[in-house]
């Protein structure tokens, strides 16, 4: 492993070229605008702040009533490792995360990828939506993300309404 000083010099050099800074700004700017669109439609209380991350992920959460009452939320995520936009089902805490992961596991969920709980893992279920090149056509990307998020939510709520006998308080 290279010393931190070498990594810092590499980062400075890459940032100096400008392309990393422009690409990162485009991702943050796009997600900020997408978040604003959700706030305009659903209100400030239904959408979290934007978490910019440390080149691991950038995301914001949506708190639809059917999920919020169970201690669940959706996250619209840009994952820097896979370089894709995703939507995740996540929980308010690790206890709920484990509970709902088990509920989906026990009832044979197979529609989207079920993510096994582990240290540093926040998703219960995740769905890839679009790769980063979608940023070249932001209107198309927004339509795709919004449709995917709604379909994901509909599928989750349908499942939970059948299989989740008690809602979290």
Write the layout of secondary structure elements.
Blueprint: H1 4-17, H2 19-42, E1 57-62, H3 65-68, E2 72-79, E3 84-91, H4 94-106, E4 113-114, E5 123-131, H5 138-163
Antiparallel strand pairs: 1-2, 2-3, 3-5, 4-5
Question: Which properties best describe this structure?
Answer:
alpha+beta, five-stranded antiparallel beta sheet, globular
If you had to describe this structure to a student in words, what would you say it looks like?
With 169 residues, this protein is α+β, with helices and mostly antiparallel strands. The protein has one domain. Helix content is 48%, strand content 20%. It is built from five helices and five strands. The chain has helices at 4-17, 19-42, 65-68, 94-106, 138-163; strands at residues 57-62, 72-79, 84-91, 113-114, 123-131. Strands 1-2-3-5-4 form a five-stranded antiparallel sheet. Strand 2 and strand 3 form a beta hairpin. The radius of gyration is 18 Å and the shape is globular. The model has no long low-confidence stretch (mean pLDDT 94).
- Integer average pLDDT: 94
Silhouette = globular
Q: Give the biggest beta sheet.
A: 5 strands, antiparallel
Query: What is the tally of helical segments?
Result: 5
Q: What is the CA–CA distance across the termini?
A: 47 Å
Tally of DSSP β-strands: 5
- Please tell me how large the radius of gyration is: 18 Å
Q: Main sheet: which strands, in order across?
A: 1-2-3-5-4
The amount of beta strand, in percent, is 15-25%
Helix and strand string, N-terminal first?
HHEHEEHEEH
**Computed structural class:** alpha+beta
Fraction of residues in H or I helices: 40-55%
Please indicate the count of domains. Answer: 1
Task: Name the poorly predicted regions.
Answer: none
């Amino acid at each position: 492993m290279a010393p931190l000083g070498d990594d810092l010099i590499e980062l400075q050099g890459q940032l100096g070229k400008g392309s990393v800074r422009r690409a990162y700004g485009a991702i943050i700017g796009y997600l900020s605008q997408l978040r604003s669109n959700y706030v305009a439609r659903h209100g400030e209380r239904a959408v979290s702040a934007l978490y910019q991350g440390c080149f691991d992920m950038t995301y914001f959460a949506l708190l639809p009533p059917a999920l919020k009452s169970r201690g669940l939320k959706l996250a619209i995520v840009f994952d820097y490792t896979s370089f894709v936009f995703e939507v995740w089902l996540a929980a308010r805490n690790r206890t709920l995360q484990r509970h709902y992961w088990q509920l989906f596991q026990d009832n044979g969920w197979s529609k989207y990828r079920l993510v096994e709980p582990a240290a540093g893992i926040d998703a219960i279920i995740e769905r890839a939506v679009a790769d980063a090149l979608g940023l070249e056509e932001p209107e198309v990307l927004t339509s795709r993300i919004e449709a995917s998020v709604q379909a994901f939510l509909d599928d989750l709520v349908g499942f939970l309404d059948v299989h989740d006998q008690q809602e979290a308080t």
